[in-house]
Amino acid sequence: MTETRLPGLPAPPPPGASALPPGTFDDAVVLVTGGGTGLGKAIAAEFARLGADLVIASRKPEHLKAAHDELSALGGRVLTVACDIRDPERIAEVFDAAEAELGLPGVLINNAAANFPVPAEDISPNAWRSVVDITLTGTFFMTREFGRRHLAAGTPASIVDVGASYAWTGGPGFAHSAAAKAGVKNLVETLAVEWGPYGIQVNGLVPGLMPHEDMTADIRANLEQARHDKDDRQPALRVGAPRELGWAATFLASPYARFITGHTLVVDGANWQRRGLVSPPVVPVREQMGRGPFEG
Ligand code: NAP
User: How far is CA 147 from CA 92, 144, 156, 242, 273, in A?
Assistant: First the structure.
């Protein structure tokens, strides 16, 4: 008997296609944190294709160079600024530089985050602080600076926070990041109400499994283990392409989504909703990660 392969969800349009009319972001300035790698770069690219000028903020010069080289090739102006989003003073300088060179960004994509898999009992105070400070506190500091400038100027604006589905479900093996992303999702809901009256939209955007060349060694190693059948492990029968996240980000920040705010959109082919009829046996995170017994 030959095995019939189910089709799964259709493949997306090819790279270079856009989800919105050409020029949707002409005259717009879009600031993307962590826009020199992976999903942040994919999001920035879709805004650039639609006419936006970009501000890319992150720490490492090699990431900023990659952003400049690859994103300027798409047509718009690209300003790259070194910034650790844990530092509110540096964040203010980034916005000063953006305003001086391109104008106040009207869209902020809070994409930068930190993460690595670890059993909760092994998380050091430093590791906990580092992940929560970057992912939650850094997102808030960026958002606060952006919001204050638009409140002062009386200008409308849009924020998209890149989240993770374990904000709802919990994330065994990622206690620090899951708690931080839950905080980010909550911030979206709070700020959408606080700032809606001033014309500022705030939404969240959650990627599913979207492999890209910049994934960290830890995450890549986890993925490699399931490489042979990773498509079959998704209800879509395929993983996501980073450009699918980019298209969703451009929609959420576009004039066509002005009445959507306080919402977190999950772009993961329904993978986070997946449940078996019968639960698989529980394997403790420690064991899944091949760690020996805990010695206090
Ligand atoms: P990534 O390639 O590791 O990108 C993280 C980016 O954040 C890097 O560009 C990094 O640049 C920047 N960054 C980290 N710490 C920073 C800091 N303190 N200040 C400024 N920038 C900082 O990650 P990714 O896979 O593209 O993920 C992007 C977003 O999607 C994250 O929010 C992540 O949580 C979320 N997400 C990803 C997946 C996935 O499948 N990949 C799934 C769920 C959620 P520098 O090193 O130059 O600072």
Answer: 12, 5, 10, 27, 33
pLDDT digits (tens, 9 = 90+) for 183-228: 999 999 999 999 999 999 999 999 999 998 887 666 666 665 555 4
Strands 29-33 and 53-58: parallel
Would you mind telling me the total number of residues written for the chain in this entry?
296
Q: Of these residues, 25, 95, 140, 166, which one is catalytic?
A: 166
Mutate which of 56, 58, 187 for ligand 1 pocket (most atoms within 8 A of beta carbon): 58
Q: Is 214 in the pocket of ligand 1 (CB under 6 A)?
A: yes
Atom of ligand 1 nearest to the CA of 240: 40
pTM of the model: 0.95
Query: Is residue 122 within 8 Å of residue 179, measured between CB atoms?
Result: no
Residue nearest atom 41 of ligand 1, based on CA coordinates: 210
Rounded CA-CA distance 296/293 in Å is 10
Place of tokens 């000063």: 96
- C-alpha torsion sign, points 287, 290, 292, 294: negative
CA 112 to centroid of ligand 1, rounded, Å: 4
Nearest CA residue ID for atom 13, ligand 1: 112
**Whether 166 contacts 121, CB under 8 Å:** no
Residue ranges of alpha helices (H) inside 50-174 are 61-72, 88-101, 125-132, 139-153, 166-169
Cα 123 from Cα 206, distance rounded (Å): 24
